[in-house]
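Quarterly update, task 2.4: fe (ii) ion-bound model.
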Amino acid sequence: MTTPTQETIVDFLADIFARRGAEAYLGEAVSMAEHMLQGAALAEAEGAGDELVAAALLHDIGHFTSEFGAYHPSDTEDKHHDEAGAAVLEPFFPPVVTECVRLHVAAKRFLCATDPAYFARLSRASAHTLSLRGGPMSQDEVAAFRRNPFHAQAVRVRLWDEEGKVAGRKTPDFAHYAPLLERVVRRHMREAHA
Ligand SMILES: [Fe+2]
C-alpha cells in the first residue's frame, strides 16, 4: 500500500476502481464500480457541479478499507465505510466532497425520518443496513443533521446513491471523470495553500 499524494490521488482512485470495481455491491444487482459510476452519471445529468459529481462517484470508496490500511486485517465487515471514505479523501478534496461522503449513511437515516416516501424507495439491502446503522434519525438527530452546512448536498448525493443500483445501465467509465477529479483536487489544494 502506498500513501497517495496530491499528484497521485486520482490514479490511486482509478486503480481501486480498476482492480476492485467488479466486486459485488452487497445485496444489489450492480457491482461497486457500476453503482458509483451510476451515481456520478445521475449527478452529471442533473447538472450538479464538479464537487457533487465527485462526491457521488466516490461516496462508497470507503468500502475498500483494506486499500487505505484504515482497519485491522481481521475486520471482515465494513462497519464505517462512510467515515473511512471521508478520511482517505480529506487531504485532497474540499469539505463539501468529504462531508457528502461522510454523511451519506446519515443522510439515509435523515431522509427516512423526514420523508415518508423515501423509505419505500430503499432497496431491500439498503433497508437492512439502515437498521444496522440505527434506523431513522430521532428528532434531535434530525436537528443536528440540519445544522451541518453541507446537509442539503449530502441529501442530493444520497438520492443519487439510491438511484444508482440499476442492473445493466450504461454510464461513462472512470476515465471520463478523472479530469473532473483532477480539477476538484487542484482547485482545493490551491485554495487550501493560498
Ligand atoms: Fe452507495
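Highlight for this quarter: The radius of gyration is 16 Å.
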